[in-house]
Amino acid sequence: MIKTIFHCCLLLFLCSCGPAQESTETERDASQRSAIEERLIAELSPSDDMAGRQRNAIINRAIDRNYDVYAAPEGYFYEILDTGEYNRLMEGDIVSVHYVGTFLDGQEFDNSKRRGDKLRFRIGDLIPAWNIALQRVRPGARLRILTPSELAYGTEGLVAPNGDTLVPADAPLEFLIEEITILEE
């Protein structure tokens, strides 16, 4: 009997504490989302050319997914999820990374983890958005990039060696880049 009373009291106590904490977190999340959304809406492009439409599509993706992205002066958007350690990466550094590439609708077109093979490259040898954005972080960082096509694969798109189109021309893209490691030459 005493055990039953104790369990009932404990259950009542937990039930009365749980929702208050949950609503505070929800309110905090909602206010953060609202602030991010307001900041991103201010970045919308008034122009209706392809660059303006792609910029607006990127901003809409960020708002829909609650990404806390910032506009880079070069024209892409980025979110540093983990800054990493040591010195910032520089053009010419040889690095290996895992990444996931998706279209703005969320459809994946490439995933190095799924292949089980990190991408190895020299910063400066890839698409412009990667070359520029990677210089914002350090080894071990996690970074999200949303980029217009002009800083990705542009009017050519990306075609596999067998001739299959992996990324169509003029496609804005999203990349999640992680497990960044500097390699020795």
Automatic annotation (TrEMBL):
Top-rank taxon, per record: Bacteria
InterPro entries, alphabetized: PPIase_dom_sf, PPIase_FKBP_dom
Gene3D superfamilies attached to this UniProt entry: 3.10.50.40
Residue ranges that the Swiss-Prot or TrEMBL entry lists as coiled coil: none
EC number from the UniProt entry: 5.2.1.8
Residues spanning the signal sequence: 1-22
Enzyme class per UniProt: isomerase
Keywords (A to Z) from UniProt: Isomerase, Rotamase, Signal
SUPFAM superfamilies from the UniProt entry: FKBP-like
Domain PPIase FKBP-type: 92-183
Family: Belongs to the FKBP-type PPIase family.
Protein name as catalogued: Peptidyl-prolyl cis-trans isomerase
Organismal lineage: Bacteria, Pseudomonadati, Bacteroidota, Saprospiria, Saprospirales
